[in-house]
Amino acid sequence: MVQTLAIGGLLPATLLTPVAARDGVDVGDNSVFSRLVPADTVEQSAAQEYAQMLQQAAAQKALGGPNHPQVRRLRAIAQKIIPYAVSWNVRAKDWRWEVNLIGSKQINAFCMPGGKIAFYSGILEQLRLTDDEVATVMGHEVAHALREHARARMAKNAATGIGANLLSNVLGLGQLGQTVTSYGAQLLTLQFSRSDESDADLVGMELAARAGFDPRAGVSLWQKMATANKGAPPQWLSTHPSGSTRIADIEANLPKVMPLFKRDPAS
């Protein structure tokens, strides 16, 4: 049986409360497309796809065990970030968060809808990420889930396939619901838009800062990404803005998140 960590179950309920002040970055509301399909449908599809991925990794002896140093490190960082997730999406308080490590040379990481996080060992080893940089990556991926980018993308794909039938079925789901279910297997390969990626950069930077990780790590992270990929986006960042653009956006928003950054004395 695959061993995972349901992080949400380990956090005291008192921690899972919205951040009192809505300071920090301003990225507007979630896409209206995300409202076209039930969140439960997307999250259930994600949980199934994630479980299958873990089973395959375990069968190939590529799944990091609970005592693996990097697994413990990732889960410790996640435990600091997750309490701030609910301020961006109230559903996050009920998610069964999981964090796992997959043995692979790929420079890759993701967070599926419902809080299913995975890092590939390649991104940690090849880029030699610091904890602050890991938190930046994790915050970015968690932001995708909180901002429901996959849900919106699936709705757009389904709407494109349905065409004229969309408006007549959307309120009762009908064909749209069936089509979205069929997209569950594509959760690992969905490509986000540039605006989605910029959105996730800023929200992720704020999450990391509130959790006690230096948001300036986004600059060093993208410098490492550029070096590792010779200026081209890595696999986990398909169709993303260029590294120089992202660094400029991060630096422009640092004044908004630096006041939120308070280093944990125990770190």
As a percent range, the share of strand residues is 5-15%
- Structural class estimated from helices and strands: mainly alpha
Helix content: 40-55%
Cα-based radius of gyration, to the nearest Å: 18 Å
Average residue pLDDT: 76
H/E topology pattern? HHEEEHHHHHHHH
Number of strands: 3
Shape: globular
Give the end-to-end Cα distance, rounded to a whole number of Å.
Answer: 33 Å
Given as residue ranges, the uncertain stretches (5+ residues, pLDDT < 50) are 1-21, 162-181
Strand order of the largest sheet: 1-3-2
Largest sheet geometry: 3 strands, mixed
With helices defined by DSSP (H or I, 4 residues minimum), what is the helix count?
10
Written overview of the protein:
The chain is built from ten helices and three strands. The chain is mainly alpha-helical. Strands 1-3-2 form a three-stranded mixed beta sheet, sandwiched between helices. The chain is globular, with a radius of gyration of 18 Å.
Outline:
This protein has 267 residues and is mostly helical. Strand 2 (109-112) and strand 3 (116-120) form a beta hairpin. Helix content is 47%, strand content 5%.
